[in-house]
Amino acid sequence: MPRPSDAFGHMVRDHLRGGHAVEVIERDDGYVDTTPGAEAYFAPHDRWPDNKQAAMALARGRVLDIGCGAGRVCLHLQERGLDVVGIDISPLAVETCRERGVRDARVLSITRVSRSLGMFDTVVMMGNNFGLFGDPKRARWLLRRLGGMTTPGARIIAETMDPYGTDNPDHLGYHARNRRRGRMGGQIRLRVRYKSHVGAWFDYLFVSRDEMAGILDGTGWRIAQILESGGPGYIAAIEKAAT
Question: How many CA atoms lie within 13 A of 34 on its CB side?
């Protein structure tokens, strides 16, 4: 087996260089799918769906963009005059961000965020990046950590997808398999493939609105607003509970 490589980073860098690039998503039950292409990671703000534009209007102050990808959110918020720190585990994605003009992009895993980054008023987790929490236990631990590095009244703007609005038997079977193993139905284990590059396996968490509320309970955060997409995807504006 090849050593895990930065498959996602190679894809976005190739797109930056002018090529059409599509990633392959492989799930641990053998299910394989593709995304529409790298264009989505580069789309300018005026081409975003209405709920994404509305969500970004909620960002304020100093912003931490978790899973910044190719930098589309960072660049938009910079243009608005906000101070933004983008982090991503992909070195080539971070290199792409810097080439595109992101002023502060760093190679850093979500599990390594800490007050050493400074204090933030907004945390952004767009592109279904609520999923980077991985599993409920890690999500609660990280939410408490984010609580310690954000200001009073801070908010998390997090995008995800309700995994249960499907009649696909492969997905329904995967949900049932997860539950038999003591996992949440939408707790996906996957890896990214691109050309000859194969990424490492990781957990990615899709949740219903009720499941998200349950994860947040007791962490010091609460859902203040849901911005619907008209489909299974949605964005939650999550606010720090008053103490």
Answer: 9
* pTM for the full predicted model: 0.96
At 31, the amino acid letter reads Y
The per-residue b/e assignment along 21-48, b for 16 or more CB within 10 angstroms, e otherwise, is bebbbbbeeeeeeeeeebeebbeeeeeb
Q: What's the rounded Cα separation, in Å, for the pair 208 and 233?
A: 10
Whether domain 7-240 has CATH 3.40.630.30: the reply is no
Predicted pLDDT of residue 19: 80
Sequence ranges of the domains in the chain: 7-240
Q: What is the structure's pLDDT at 2? A: 56
Provide the token pair at 208: 């219903």
Q: Residue 243 has what pLDDT?
A: 65
pLDDT digits (tens, 9 = 90+) for 155-184: 999 999 999 999 999 999 999 999 999 999
| Residues in the chain, pLDDT under 50 | none
Tokens of 13: 């860098």
Tokens of residue 238, six digits? 């999550």
- Rounded CA-CA distance 120/147 in Å is 10
Q: What share of the chain is helix, strand, coil (3-state, %, to 5)?
A: 35, 30, 35
Query: How many Å apart are CA 185 and CA 100, to the nearest integer?
Result: 37
CB atoms within 10 A of CB 75: 20
What one-character DSSP code corresponds to residue 165? Answer: S
131 contacts 160 by C-beta, under 8 angstroms:
yes
Q: Find the helix packing angle between 7-16 and 91-100, rounded to 10°.
A: 20
Give CA–CA dist 227/5, Å, rounded: 35
